């Protein structure tokens, strides 16, 4: 082996070239989940909490829609049978539907069914609006906070690289600066 060539070692039939590593570029141990937020400000943590609350609101609207749908379906069945007492419902009476009828005539059942469908439509519109708005806010809040944190991390990386001595850049051949700034 010539002394002018870099030292090459063989491991599992692969050639690995030993290159000196600059100080600070050694591999670091993984960090915990909570340490990811060390670049966050208190204001950003507050917005993350608001985004989480919006996600919870959005998640709770789907069960509400299922409850309203099941009540309306129960009213459809009760109005079609026209015998006995209507089921007890809780959401439809908020907007004038879900009247409890006992052995009502066809006309009264049709009028009550019309009121049920109006109440159903209003409740679904409200639930859809809440789901849409909370979904928009949660996504936008998370994107805004992530953008601010990533920008802050990139600025810190750039500042730390610019503070290094010129010799550090010669030894840092494994570091692709442009790629690390965009990641």
TrEMBL record:
It is a multi-pass membrane protein. It comes from the Eukaryota. Keywords: Membrane, Transmembrane, Transmembrane helix. SUPFAM superfamilies: ABC transporter transmembrane region (SSF90123). The keyword Transmembrane helix applies. GO terms for molecular function: ABC-type transporter activity; ATP binding. This is GH23394. It comes from Drosophila grimshawi. The lineage of its organism: Eukaryota, Metazoa, Ecdysozoa, Arthropoda, Hexapoda.
């Amino acid at each position: 082996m010539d002394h002018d060539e870099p030292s090459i070692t063989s491991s599992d039939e692969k050639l690995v070239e030993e290159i000196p590593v600059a100080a600070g570029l050694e591999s670091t141990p993984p960090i915990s989940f909570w340490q990811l937020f060390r670049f966050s400000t208190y204001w950003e943590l507050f917005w993350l909490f608001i985004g989480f609350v919006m996600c919870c609101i959005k998640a709770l609207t789907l069960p509400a829609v299922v409850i309203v749908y099941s009540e309306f379906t129960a009213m459809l069945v009760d109005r079609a049978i026209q015998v006995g007492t209507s089921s007890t419902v809780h959401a439809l009476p908020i907007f004038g539907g879900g009247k409890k009828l006992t052995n009502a005539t066809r006309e009264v059942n049709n009028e009550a069914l019309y009121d049920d469908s109006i109440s159903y439509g209003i409740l679904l519109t409200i639930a859809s609006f809440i789901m849409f708005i909370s979904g928009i806010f949660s996504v936008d809040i998370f994107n805004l906070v992530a953008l601010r944190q990533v920008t802050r991390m990139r600025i810190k990386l750039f500042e730390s690289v610019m503070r290094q001595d010129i010799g550090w850049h010669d030894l840092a051949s494994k570091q692709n600066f442009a790629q690390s700034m965009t990641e």
